[in-house]
Design goal:
The protein is 6% helix and 57% strand. It has 116 residues and is mostly beta strands.
Amino acid sequence: MNNKEFSEKAIRHGEVMIVPVGEIPADSTEIYSGREFVVGHSETGHNHVAVGDITMFRPRGADDSTLFMRVNKDSVLEHRKSFDKHETKALLKGLYTVTIKRQWDYFAKRLARVQD
């Protein structure tokens, strides 16, 4: 995927990045199948939630910052917060990787989750 395709297809939703992929890694384990899944927990309690017909996968050895998602029918990504909300985004039927953005914490000298 080139930069233009990435910009057109990637979904940015606060600290959550969702990008279309061609396949889900074969060593992944299904961790959820249903109507709602919190793809990004926020430090202030507002969450980024995939709503629709979705199945979530975790690749073997991955931590909670990287997941794969199969959107079985067109769905949406909602921001569950009463104010200053991110726009609801369409999740079209397909395969995606879900990543929580990270940044370098110079004080702790480690990678840390980006806080929204």
